Amino acid sequence: MIEIKNLYFSRDKHQIFTDFSMTLQPSETVLLTGPNGVGKSTLIGLIGGILRPDRGHIIIDNQEISQLNAKRQAQLRSVAPQRRDFQLAFTVEEVINFVPQRMREDNLEFIVDTLRLSGILGKKITELSIGQQERVSLALSLHQRAPYYLLDEPFSAQDSQATADILTVINFLKNNKKGVLVISHNQDALIKNFDRQVMLALPSADPQAFS
Amino acid sequence: MKKSSKSLLAYLIGLTLLIGLFYLSLNIGILDVHSSILSLIGKSDIEATTVWGIRFPRALGAAVIGAGLGVAGAIAQGIFRNPLADPTLIGLSSGATLGTIALISSGASTYGTRGNVAAAVLASALTAILVQWLAPNRGFGLLLTGIAVSAMLTSIAGMLIAISVKPGIQSITFWNFGSLTLLNNATVSMVSPYIEIGIITCFFVSRRMDIYSLGDQSSHYLGVNPQRIRFVAIIGMAFLIGASVSAVGSIAFLGLLVPHIVRLIFGPAHRQMLTFCALTGSIVLLLADLLARTLFVPHEIPLGLLTSLLGAPVLIFLIRLRKASWYSMIEDRK
């Protein structure tokens, strides 16, 4: 289980999380929504270990994330960030196989088929469209073996077909006892596909938040 | 399958070229060698001394140092995620140059001693760490800081030469442009271990450099600590650049050019790239040195001038050939 307990986090004197708590269970899919700037990606950064909480705890399967090194963290969760720097002309196949051998989930065929990447495995990542690049980026994260998956805006550059494909993958993860946290700003169309929704709200008393 | 046989073939071709050039380097020069070079082993006449005492260490040094510079260039571009990054731009060379010149002009040590190599490696590493520390970000801020620090250290080195009372220090200018003339068996055997350590260190991080290329966040998410990769890579580069600068001065362009050639042929995967950068670096430096000392006999052209003169057009050609990927990327990244 991922447990976020009494989390406080601020950046540039701007308080983003105040006494925030939530959980993510195995086999659970949660849609994280909220207005722009509310801290959805920040939360993924905190759970993913690139940001440190000011106070509070982020615990994955009884281990405090901030006390683990990058490799141990990567065994507990996989993160698909919103953007990756694809600068070098690796092939799609090479990118998906960036996951070190001993950290791979045995799901490559399913992911490649479902996300419709089999036709472009030999293509250079730098020559693909943004939507294709993001599906490759997603495939890379899904090929990493972990009990929990955190996906930051996986639908943002996708058409309705690709969105349906990604939802199929999320369901596949759930059926394999994985916990999945997905960020999206387009909750209305998607919420029926998730077990539950967590909505982040801007603190209304803080006028700074709207600037 | 097809890809690996292509690289095996390329490897064999490269190795053949290297051996051929090495053989030529032993045979060609101001003095014509009439006997077979193998028959000269163990003899002490003028031909034997020329071949095994002068040309051999020079050719061996060129191969070893060329390999080191090729690898350092590939690692620099990878670590800074920038096709313009070159060990000379980010301060590694100028640090090593200043270290060497400070040591020699102060009289604490002379060229080609153990102290010289160690001081150059240390100065190179310290400069890289200073640049890292001063830079506001990991993108262009880092490169610009490197260029500025480089300029400063080069000036200080120049001043040290100007005010030095040691006779003959001005001849350092020749060394400063890059030249293999000073290489002998002693320097080569002193420098080679540093270069080997540097190459092994770079290979150690090469697999993870592929993941690292996706950015700091992505690296962390995939279990690779980007700071650690940077630190190890910079230490590796300091060994390579420090040792080679202490022996032959800064050789322009090689570190920038070789990785671009290799990447265009074999793709960007770092482990394979490093192997071919080492091989290509050896070939290019051996060839350049052979030309430098035979083109205008009895004059010898400073090697760094030749690598620039030949390297620049090749780079322009390569950039025009392939506009994709790295060459369209010019924007600052946090």
Proportion in helices of chain A: 25-40%
Low-confidence stretches of chain B: 327-334
SS element count, helices of chain A: 7
Q: Quaternary status of these chains?
A: heterodimer
- How can the largest sheet of chain A be summarized? 5 strands, parallel
Terminus-to-terminus distance of chain B:
39 Å
Strand runs of chain A, count: 9
Radius of gyration of chain A: 17 Å
CATH architecture of chain B: Orthogonal Bundle
Helix share bin of chain B: over 70%
Notes on the protein architecture:
The complex is a heterodimer of chains A (211) and B (334). With 211 residues, chain A is α/β, with parallel strands linked by helices. The longest helix of chain A is centred in the last third of the chain and has 16 residues. The radius of gyration of chain A is 17 Å and the shape is globular. Chain A starts with a strand and ends in a 12-residue tail after the last strand. The C terminus of chain A is likely disordered. Chain B has a single domain, classed as ABC transporter involved in vitamin B12 uptake, BtuC (Orthogonal Bundle). Chain B is globular, with a radius of gyration of 20 Å. In chain B, α1 runs parallel beside α11, α2 packs antiparallel against α9 and α10 runs parallel beside α12. Chain B is built from 12 helices and no strands. Chains A and B meet through α2 of A and α7 and α8 of B.
